[in-house]
Amino acid sequence: MSKTKKNLLRVLLVISLVSASWSGWTVWNTALRAPSFNRLPVPQQLIAGDSATGQQLFVGSGYTADYDPLMAHFVAQVRPAFCGVASSVVVLNALPAGPAMPAMNGMPVAQLTQQSFFDDAASQVRNEWRVTFGGMTLAQLRDLLNSHGANATATYASDTTLEAFRELAKTNLATSGDYLLVNYQRGALGQRPTGHISPLAAYNSASDRFLILDVAAYKYPPVWVKAQDLWAGMNAVDSSAGRTRGFVVVNGSKARAK
User: Fold this and answer.
1) Out of 66, 214, 229, 238, which one is annotated catalytic?
2) Which position among 83, 143, 229, 238 bears the catalytic label?
3) Residue 64 sits in a domain of what CATH number?
4) I need a labelling partner for 74 at 20 to 30 A (CA). Which of 93, 179, 206, 215 fits?
5) Is 119 a catalytic residue?
6) Is 148 a catalytic residue?
7) Which residues contact 247 (CB under 8 A, 6 or more apart)?
8) Among this protein's residues, is 68 annotated catalytic?
9) How confident is the model at residue 28 (pLDDT cuts 50, 70, 90)?
10) Which residue in the list 66, 178, 196, 238 is annotated as catalytic?
């Protein structure tokens, strides 16, 4: 082999290695790395839960039964596409009976975590890596919750109305022991457009606003959103599912063997 060809092969090898390294770094940076704390501005159409106005809305709300248990078990998502995982962990741990806990290295886990979420049953629905790189649909969110022993039902926004959702949500938020997760398009709320999942924690009837406990806490605080804007976000089509987004109601728990 000529010296010129050898040099060319060396150059191609270096380019290949650099490309592989860069690709690996890109994957780590966009899908696997824990999100950095970088709060974005709260859009004008939303009200931050920790603002003076937001606190007044909470005090004036008669629908806060879920707030304390959700906050007691609240966690922020640990990967960019883990909003559904974090939301599930919050509500599963908040259920009165709690989920059946898996064991790690032969030792029982005190509470479900985002690390222990993908046990064998959950992984049969959608495994950790598929969620890491592709998130989850509304149906997969429901099935993952049920795989952990919950009693979860999903409703697509296209199958109901804003009025029916509002009444269901008010009943849910006024009673303890059941929870409501919303799957919505952020763009409808004036936020950076992307699909998202988080729990609802309260409702204020005078302003017709719901309080979302955003599990991307490094990005946004809890926010009060107008019901019509939240509905627009849930009624947006999820391209990965070919259907609208919607909500999941989680009631009680069904024990299952681990």
Assistant:
1) 214
2) 83
3) 3.90.70.30
4) 206
5) no
6) no
7) 138, 154, 155, 157, 165, 169, 180, 181, 182, 183, 234
8) no
9) very low
10) 196
